[in-house]
């Protein structure tokens, strides 16, 4: 009999709500479809693709459009099939089996997931009670464990907490390890280190088109690093990792700077309105929910009723993310947020 090895024998395939619910506030995607005129442009772009040919392995046009949008040097950019793929490629190649990786708790769950598959040893660094990171302790943790890398998201998914540029620079300068900085939500905030990427020889910044850029379906992620590291990432990724359709559409979207900035501002406003509404509910029921100030496109809430709230909302066709003592709610369209707020209110009133 063939036995699966111990690192994979208990794994189950990743699933998500797959559009089964009317109001989907569980995956931090953008709630907004592309406007009609852009869809028309995209249709003609797709018609001109050479479907019989392999994609450009360097995703040159896409990396140029991305780099121009963020005003950085395109040669330092590597495109991936979602930043998820890049996390996987980087962890598998830059660390050896049994090397140590520092991962913060709470943070994005995929870091541990890939590390386990690559037989990397994860060292868990606990955040403070208020969910912030004590940077001096994190530096100590990396150094005392002789870790080869540290990975974290800023702003953080799921906590929505942020770290300052100064703190992160302090970390980069005081560890003898690779710093993998996941800026998946940095479009919604303003402490990016993208502009300073060339200064550091131990930093990789990850960005994605799945959140503020609104292209989760295309699977587009980016790694930005100094020349030496970029060259290594480009050398270890699989050659045709980003398909031509995604390259072409991604290029077109990143060239529409005004559209992207407007979309981002619109989402930030919706998140702020959602936050204010939930904060108001909190003031009525301070023992039932505790809201954390949002900095991204979602709201993180501590509540002893997390599971009941989650189940109640699902019964009412609204999906959010259940996370133990917490729930995470993505800011949706205005009417979706209203439906959510109304159900949340009526449920908290009942219990
Ligand atoms: C959503 C998310 C990603 C994944 O982005 P993809 O490009 O869609 O793979 C990476 N990091 C964090 C923190 C995220 O929340």
Architecture overview:
The protein is globular and about 60 Å long. The mean pLDDT is 97. It has helices at residues 36-47, 60-70, 82-94, 110-117, 135-144, 165-174, 227-236, 244-254, 257-284, 306-315, 334-350; strands spanning 23-24, 77-80, 100-105, 121-126, 149-153, 178-182, 203-208, 221-225, 290-292, 298-302, 318-319, 321-323, 326-330. It is of the alpha/beta class. The chain contains eleven helices and 13 strands. The chain binds pyridoxal-5'-phosphate. The site of pyridoxal-5'-phosphate has 14 residues, from helix 3.
Structure in a nutshell:
This protein is of the alpha/beta class and 351 residues long. It has 11 helices and 13 strands. It starts with 22 loop residues before the first strand and ends with a helix.
Secondary-structure element pattern, one letter each? EHHEHEHEHEHEEEHHHEEHEEEH
Question: Which geometry do the CA atoms define?
Answer: globular
Separate helix tally: 11
Q: Which regions are unreliable across 5 or more consecutive residues at pLDDT < 50?
A: none
């Amino acid at each position: 009999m063939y036995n699966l090895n111990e690192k994979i024998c208990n794994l189950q395939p990743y699933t998500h709500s797959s559009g089964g619910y009317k109001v989907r506030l569980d995956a931090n995607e953008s709630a907004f479809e592309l406007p009609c005129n852009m869809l028309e442009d995209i249709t003609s772009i797709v018609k001109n693709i050479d479907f019989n040919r392999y994609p450009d392995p360097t995703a040159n046009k896409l990396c140029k459009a991305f780099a121009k949008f963020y005003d950085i040097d395109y040669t330092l950019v590597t495109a991936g099939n979602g930043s998820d793929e890049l996390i996987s490629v980087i962890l598998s190649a830059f660390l050896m089996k049994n090397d140590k990786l520092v991962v913060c708790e709470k943070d994005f769950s995929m870091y541990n997931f890939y590390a386990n598959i690559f037989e990397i040893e994860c060292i868990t660094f606990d955040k403070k009670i208020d969910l912030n990171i004590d940077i001096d302790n994190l530096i100590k943790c990396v150094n005392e464990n002789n870790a080869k890398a540290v990975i974290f998201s800023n702003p953080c998914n799921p906590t929505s907490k942020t770290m300052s540029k100064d703190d992160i620079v302090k970390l980069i300068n005081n560890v003898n390890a690779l710093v993998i900085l996941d800026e998946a939500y940095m479009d919604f905030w303003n402490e990016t280190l993208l502009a300073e990427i060339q200064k550091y020889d131990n930093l990789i910044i990850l960005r994605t088109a799945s959140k503020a850029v609104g292209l989760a379906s295309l699977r587009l992620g980016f790694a930005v690093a100094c020349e030496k590291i970029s060259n290594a990432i480009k050398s270890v990724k699989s050659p045709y990792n980003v398909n031509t359709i995604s390259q072409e559409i991604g290029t077109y979207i990143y060239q529409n700077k005004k559209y992207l900035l407007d979309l981002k501002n619109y989402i930030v406003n919706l998140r702020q309105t959602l936050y204010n509404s939930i904060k108001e509910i909190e003031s009525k029921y301070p023992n039932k929910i505790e809201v954390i100030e949002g900095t991204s496109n979602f709201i993180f809430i501590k509540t002893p009723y997390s599971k009941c709230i989650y189940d109640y909302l699902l019964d009412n066709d609204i999906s959010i993310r259940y996370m133990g003592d917490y729930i995470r709610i993505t800011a949706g369209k205005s009417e979706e947020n209203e439906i959510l707020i109304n159900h949340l209110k009526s449920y908290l009133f009942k219990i």
